[in-house]
Every structure is written in structure tokens, then in C-alpha cells.
Design goal:
Radius of gyration: 15 Å
Largest sheet: 10 strands, mixed
CATH topology: DHBP synthase
Bound molecules: adenosine monophosphate, magnesium ion
Oligomer: single chain
Shape: globular
């Protein structure tokens, strides 16, 4: 497969949207690190992420949305405290684990009955989600076990030949993964430390 690296503009955003709608992968900048995106509802598409990374399939992926309306079908219920946390930290590097909605593929959640969701603040991610209407699953854009890339050049080193498009949006500012918190139980639970601290 030939991997294109394109600067971010209307044309490359439209191409990224089209690829995602067709069930293909797109690597793109987020505010944390570069990610590999695939339609979270499309199991065949999400499988390609695991193949490209060499990532074990029992490790669930985070679904990226834009706008609270997009939670529909992705989660089955938004607990009250999730609204509070969303108000305080979204868009931004906080992932909330909620009861899984009927439209998310099993592959995305590694078969769990919960799903991790976040609303990124990076303008390129927001533009791609708006242009495609696709809520996408996205882990970091490195081969499994390698460090997470924060620019398009490092993404290309790991992903050359493994996916069709890398959007070059410069350096990711945060460089640290999102904080993952479960909001389903009686008390919120920190599942993975990250940029947003306890
Ligand atoms: P990443 O490695 O950045 O793709 O983030 C994926 C990580 O988010 C997983 O390794 C888990 O730690 C966490 N995660 C995602 N979805 C869930 C879930 N449904 N339940 C618990 N943790 C989750
Ligand atoms: Mg990672």
C-alpha cells in the first residue's frame, strides 16, 4: 500500500472523511499524540487498526466524537457525572468509560459492555469528524510497543505501507495520552493516568 502524507487543507480533510466512510484507516494529529482512526461502528475497519499496529485485539480502543449529540448510539447512557466532567474537560484529553451503545462494533470495545469515549480539542480531528460524520476509534499511531508519535514524520516511520493517508498537522502539543476514567460505577475510577490529573 502506498502511504500519502498530506498537509491539512480542505482537500485532504475531504479525502480523510471519504476514506473513513469507506472503512479505511487515516492517521491524524490529535492534541495528545498522532492517532490511527477507523469508523468505530465498522468492525472490519477497526480490525485494520489492530493489524497496522500489531496490537493485541483484547485491548479496547477509545472512540472520538465531536458534539454531545454524537454520543447517541455510541453509549447507551450518559451518567450525570459524565455531563459534569464533559463540561469541565471536553473538548480535551479526558476519556470516559460509559455503558456501550448498540452501534459500536465489538472489535472497538474488545467485546466489553463498556466503551471509552472522548471529545478531542484538536482542530484537525474536529474537522475530520465534522466532514465525515464518523465517530472513530483511534489508538496512537505507533507499532505496538514503540513510543507514540507526536508528528507526521515519526508516524510515517512506523506506518509506511500500512495505511493510505497521514494528515500532517504539525507537532501534537500535549504528547501525553488521555486520562481514562470510568464513570459508570458508584464512584468514578481512574483507569489510566494521563494529562488530566486526579
Ligand atoms: P490507547 O492505548 O491510547 O488507545 O487507549 C486505550 C486504553 O483506554 C486501553 O488500553 C484502556 O486502558 C482504556 N480503555 C478504553 N476503553 C476502555 C473500556 N471500555 N474499559 C476500560 N478501559 C478502557
Ligand atoms: Mg498507545
Amino acid at each position: 500500500m502506498n502511504t500519502q502524507v498530506l498537509p491539512v487543507n480542505d482537500k485532504s480533510i475531504a479525502l480523510a472523511a471519504e476514506l473513513l466512510q469507506k472503512g479505511e484507516l487515516v492517521a491524524l494529529p490529535t492534541e495528545t499524540v498522532y492517532g490511527i482512526a477507523a469508523d468505530a461502528r465498522n468492525g472490519e475497519a477497526v480490525k485494520k487498526i489492530f493489524e497496522a499496529k500489531g496490537r493485541p485485539q483484547d485491548n479496547p480502543l477509545i472512540v472520538h466524537i465531536y458534539g454531545m449529540e454524537m454520543l447517541k448510539g455510541i453509549v447507551s447512557e450518559v451518567p450525570d457525572r459524565a455531563y459534569k466532567l464533559a463540561k469541565a474537560f471536553w473538548p480535551g484529553p479526558l476519556t470516559m468509560v460509559m455503558p456501550r451503545g448498540g452501534e459500536v462494533s465489538d472489535v472497538t470495545c474488545a467485546g466489553l459492555d463498556t466503551v471509552g469515549v472522548r471529545m478531542p480539542s484538536h482542530p484537525v480531528v474536529q474537522a475530520v469528524i465534522k466532514a465525515s460524520g464518523v465517530a472513530f476509534a483511534a489508538p496512537s499511531a505507533n507499532l505496538s510497543g514503540k513510543p507514540s508519535p507526536t508528528n507526521a514524520q515519526d508516524t510515517l516511520v512506523d506506518m509506511d505501507g500500512r495505511l493510505p493517508l497521514i494528515l500532517d498537522g504539525g507537532e501534537s502539543a500535549v504528547g501525553v495520552e488521555s486520562t481514562v476514567v470510568a464513570v459508570t460505577g458508584e464512584h468514578p475510577m481512574l483507569l489510566r493516568p494521563g494529562y488530566v490529573t486526579k
